[in-house]
Amino acid sequence: MSELRFEDVTVCYGSGRSATRAVDGVSLTVPDGEVLGLVGGSGSGKSTTARAAVGLVPVDAGRILLDGRAIDVRRGRRPLQMVFQDPYSSLDPRMTVGESVAEILPKEIKRAARRDEVERLLELVHLDPARAAAYPSQLSGGQRQRVAIARALAGRPRVLIADEITSALDVSIQGAILNLVRELQSELGLSMLFISHNLAVVRYVASRVAVMHDGRIVEEGATADVLAAPQDPYTRRLLAAIPGRVPTAPTMRSTP
Amino acid sequence: MRAVRRTLRTPLGAAAAILLAIVLLTAVFAPILWGEQAAVVDTDDILAGPSPEHPIGTDGLGRDLLLRVLVATRLSVSLALVATLVAVTAGLVLGVAPLLLGRAGRAVTWFVGIAVAFPGLLLALFFAVIFGTGWLGATLAIGLAGAPSFARLCQTLVAGVASRDYVAAARVGGIGRFRVLFRHILPNIGEPLIVNATIGAGAALLSFAGLSFLGLGIQPPAYDWGRLMMEGLSGIYLNPLAALAPGIAVVIAGLAFNLVGEAAARALGIESTGIVARLAAVQPRRAVGASAPASPDEILAIRDLTVTFPGQEGPVQPVRGVSFSLRRGEVVGIVGESGSGKSLTALAIAQLVEEPGVVDADTLRFVGADLLEGDPADHRRLLGNSLAMVFQDPMTSFNPTKRMGGQLAEVATHHHGMSRREAHDRAVDRLGAVRITDPERRARQYPHEFSGGMRQRAMIGMGLMGSPKLIIADEPTTALDVTVQQQVLNLLRSIRDDDDVAILLISHDVSVIAEICDRVLVMYAGRIVEDLPVSELSRARHPYTRALLAAVPDMQTDLDRPLATVPGRPVDPAHVPAGCAFAPRCPLADAHCRAVDPDLVPVAPTARVACWHAGEPLPTPVAEVARDTEEVVA
Fold first, then answer.
1. What is the pLDDT of residue B55?
2. Which of B106, B157, B163, B166 best tests the A interface by mutation, with the highest count of A CBs <10 A?
């Protein structure tokens, strides 16, 4: 795993007068083997930041460095992999789960080994390897998101980017996916950029957090510190807006 | 395969298949069987009328016309198919070029745009002159003339698929452009392309006959239907059948292609939405005897509400016996997973469930009026004045081409008979009431100039144009940021406080419900499984409610333990298990639960629950279910 660094990255949409800066001079570091949570409202530029890192949108200024070196996205395997928000749109409906995962495997892996590797990856995300023959339409939202995670891992990423991966899921399934993310992170020592609008979710998975607003990073620090003593007014607003009067959940333990 | 068989059983599908079979069999066998006979010259019998020997007469060299029409099928049909192939291939190349070429591809898009605007037949004549008369020229001409419309279709389809996340995922995975094209894009645009190509073949057949008729197509001694028509035309007063018969052949073959295309389109469409079976089994049942009279405070009373849709294996009931009531100024939340029937319940109250859905209830009373009886027009008027609906996506709730003020005012002129001036003033006033700053200016703006939160507030403002007694808000904040969500929830709360409006808030997020509601109804598999005051959520009795609460991380969640999860997957409304629907996922379930569905019964003055083991302690959860926790439970 590796360190991902954004140095003064700017991404503009449109051209000339009507151009808007979706990402405006963002500097960020995803430390080696840690999870950086990126929070912000919709339109704050957090998804664009992620898409710039994996080369889906061009960077207009600044650099994105992996272990101090520019990322070569021209050919072959990409060192960054991404899991998308909507598992209903991120899997090709005409390919089986196994084909989707196998497609991203490095070319060095030969035929027979490929199938074993797909099975290993499905096991890793707690899916029955027999599901490799299933089509996405036969799976639930949570199962599809597991496949999407397995596919991203198939690319042997040095850094994994997760863009709102639980927002499209039912709350009952969201927890299972978050558990999986934490488990994979600790087992594989993944470096990860975890994007979410939900502070409680970010708090659960990320050791560090950056807050984004209007294309800029307004605050960054250890998750516990930022949540306990937010410095920026926007962070304070975010924290205040969390529906807070939820009675604490009843314990799942049995009473003796 | 199932779709094919199903389509063949429909009248359209059967007719299409039979016609196509006749045309193709004729094309294959007619030249083998009658090819030589059709070329036999009989100078004793030229330009003869119909006779037993020659049913539609003979041509200028005494050849039998019926045989010639039959034999011409092969050439006419195969050239039409080749022309279609040319059109589809050229269209595909032009259609995917923008994807492969990047910026340079834009020029291709412009070119196709211009070519589409050019009349097809004129293009065909133009090409026919360039390539010279003859079958090759005509084929290329018709193929290339058809290409622009296919190119446009391809571009649209490709653009649609290319914006999907799985294409982005493949690109992130380092898959090359050509591989993305062949593995991800082409298979996903194949169906509509094939359907259109089939219909295009019919058009090509017609164009080809036209070109040959004009003498620009097939040249003698070869002959196709167009050629036969041209030859027959000279003697049309002597033997009309000589010209009509090939014309009829063109019609039959064209019809065959078009019908097959139509049938295929319908088959593929049905495949994606599920076939609609007959709804004979669903008979509305009417309330037997009057229900309890309404109290003056009652806004909404529902008893045993069901919503039924026809399904493949008999009727499906996504809402199965929901009963609750709402008092003036009460804020009630409905929480549940997707597919739990919470949104359908709301739509049923607003009388917005569309055919073929059937809404039924013992009682469905809104501000004292029985919505099951009486004139639907009266109900619409009542609902229009007294009920406001707020939906999840405020962008699709407004007409993007009309000013916001006008859209709000429309409600008042339509429902309350206000003048346009009054209605506009009221709209501006209401926009102010939902805390939109500078409402006078904002009223003149279009929906896209509003932010998501402002649109949602405007939507609420639209509901406030009348004097609503009830606001139904279906996931009103799901598409919004947390900070904006807070504003919208605060707005709803203040409307309740000011006007004593009852609110029914539907959400999958318990924390949103807990924020402003007095009472929460928990829905599972089309039924209310628990009804309790929000203040008592922490003492919820139903295992499902407790699991839902525990599954959501909040700012106090223990970071050292895995989150609690609800094992299994939500119930498919078409396959609701016997007994308690939650039993397959419930840690407390026993044989009784799996056999008998518990009723929703009062367990405290303010709480109702449907569970045989309500409030019993849950067993310690296994740290994490080893395998996929959403596996289908047998």
1. 81
2. B166
Cβ distance B261 to B199 under 8 Å?
Answer: yes
| Chain B contact for A199 (CB, 8 A cutoff) | yes
CB atoms inside a 10 Å sphere around CB B624? 17
CB pairs below 8 Å between A and B: how many? 213
Confirm or reject contact between A195 and chain B (CB < 8 A): no
A8, A62 Cβ separation under 8 angstroms: yes
- Nearest residue to B433 via CA among B407, B391, B462: B462
Q: Residues 6 or more apart from B29 whose CB is under 8 A from it?
A: none
Rounded Cα distance between B107 and B114, Å, is 11
Instruction: Please name the residue that has the structure tokens 């963002």.
Output: A26
Contacts of A90 in chain B (CB under 8 A): 164-166, 168-169
CB B18 within 8 A of CB B252: no
Query: Hey, what domains does chain B have and what are their CATH numbers?
Result: 74-273 (1.10.3720.10), 299-309+317-524 (3.40.50.300), 529-634 (no CATH)
Chain A residues 29-88 within an 8 A CB cutoff of chain B: 41-42, 51, 54-56, 75-78, 80-82, 84-86
Residue spans of alpha helices (H) in chain A: 46-53, 97-104, 111-124, 141-154, 171-188, 199-205, 223-228, 233-241
- The C-alpha angle with vertex B158 and arms to B157 and B164, in degrees rounded to 5, equals 100
Closest to A204 measured CA to CA, from B413, B459, B472, B561: B561
B87's tokens: 């059109």
Q: pTM of the entire structure? A: 0.78
Residue whose structure tokens are 């808030």: B505
pLDDT for B626? 39
User: Could you tell me the two tokens for A242?
Assistant: 């969390």
Query: Strands B527-533 and B607-609, how do they pair?
Result: antiparallel
Determine the average pLDDT of the residues in B467-486: 83
CB-based contact A42 B554, cutoff 8 Å? no
Retrieve residue B40's tokens.
Answer: 């036999």
Question: Per-residue pLDDT averaged across B422-444, rounded?
Answer: 88
| Spatial separation of the C-alpha atoms in residues B557 and A200, rounded to whole Å | 8
**Spans of chain A, pLDDT less than 70:** 1, 16-18, 72-77, 244-256
Identify residue A189 by its one-letter amino acid code.
G
Neighbours of B177 (CB within 10 A): 15
CB atoms inside a 10 Å sphere around CB A211: 26
